[in-house]
UniProtKB/TrEMBL annotation:
Sample GO molecular function, one term: iron ion binding
GO-annotated biological processes: organic acid metabolic process; xenobiotic metabolic process
GO cellular component: cytoplasm; membrane
Transmembrane segments: 1-17
Keywords in alphabetical order: Heme, Iron, Membrane, Metal-binding, Monooxygenase, Oxidoreductase, Transmembrane, Transmembrane helix
Pfam families: p450
Subcellular localization(s) per the UniProt record: Membrane
Residues noted as binding heme in the record, renumbered to the chain: 429
Protein name per the record: Cytochrome P450, family 2, subfamily AA, polypeptide 9
Amino acid sequence: GPTMLFGLLFLVFYEVYRFLLHGNRFPPGPRPWPLLGNIPQLLMKPAQTFAEIATYGEIASLYLGRKPSIVLNTLQVSKMALVENGAVFSGRPSLPVLDWIINGRGIVMSNGDSWRQQRKFASLTLKAFGLGKKSLEERVTEEAYYLIDELEKEGENPFDPQHMIQNAVSNIICSVVFGGRYDYEDKRFHNLLDIINENIFLTGSALGQIFNLFPFIKHFPGPHQRIQQNASELTGFISEEAREHRKTLDKDNLRDFIDAYLVQMEKQESIPNSTFFEENMVFSVADLFLAGTDTTSTTIRWGLIYMMEHPHIQEQCHKEIEYVLGFDRIPSMDDRAALPYVYATVHEVQRVGNIVPLGLIHSTTQATQLKGYYLHKGTNVLVNLTAILKDKDHWKYPDTFNPANFLDEKGQFCKNESFLAFSLGPRVCLGEQLARMELFVVFTALLQRLHFSWPPNTAPHDTEGVFGLTRSPKPFKMLCRRRGAKH
Ligand code: HEM
């Protein structure tokens, strides 16, 4: 009928338009659907689509809606773009669903001077409040022991550890930004974590993609309004914290990130167009909180799964920790050298866990070229962290969980340049140092005190996971039992 004819004509026009736009000078990639691009494939069979993209050579293309993105599939080409030409490749695109709630504020999705200033300030302030210092490490170990107590309470009954782990991890970032932790029973804080989870899920889901294609739906009621409500609830929580901080602020004795930001705002009061204002504070805090919580807690959950899947690796970790620390000595970053097997295992958890499969989306800040391809200003750029973390040319055991990927023949830890879990270049994860400390200290403390196993008759775990903004494990239940003497 006429609809069919119209559809066909549309397809032809669309293909011609695509060709005229890029000629044959745009890299190859999976065939896009009209209008929707590769979004249906990405939503319906994400793992296969990621694997397929990697087969198109070092640079591939992917259509998020009508807009093409280039995908960097190797370490070499990623370095060429994001490091050697870092200024040009370090923009962020405008994504309607995120613009709707973030509007260019904060760190993760901001651009230009605002991004540079907010990022630099956050980086320096994280350092000032203990990164690389003993005090923050002690806070991390303290939190690890709260978590161990909570896990142990569940004892020998199968339970899902997700909430406890998330609460523990977000408490660490809370200590830095708000100056305190929240009790695991705190209802208001639980509610906040639920809201965050829901928004991470919704913005990454089909609903978020529909919004990106048809942003005018923001003017109409519907399930997408939930995203805005959740965001307001989170920013409301932060604003309230800031109000409390203002009342008790002592400039000679700054307690946390919010205090430091309030002082910075005052310092810059007379500077026209200063990027240090209330809303940027709220969104910077939200960014640290969001980027720091889901990533780290998801990694720890994958870690527990890999330990249960590979009991002999768990046992090897137990043995090394028992030999070096015993059951009571509190682990610290200084113990990394003496615990090479555990340190390698933590890296392997991140490599195989691969929780940000295509990194965070970048955008070119001006027209440029890469390996002979001409790229317009505002071309989307994705770094295929999955392909790089599993590149057969760079890993001894690319497709299996094996800490030997990070060990030399003598059993000593060895770095691997392709370990890009935190991405690279000027947009590299701002929390890398904090995340590495959390992962090593918490993982070591957990394995020092506890033994993890699947409940009897558990079906084999689905290691493909659930794809949202991060790749997380399907909900699971586990058993844990105490090792060594009661602490
Ligand atoms: C960005 C990974 C933990 C704060 C990123 C990016 C990745 C990443 C892949 C994107 C970089 C890019 O755009 O190329 C991880 C992983 C973590 C982790 C795997 C833990 C296992 C944290 C923590 C914090 C944090 C604990 C908080 C202190 C940020 C921020 C950005 C970012 C603020 C945005 C940087 C920017 O746009 O300039 N992270 N991250 N991350 N991460 Fe992390």
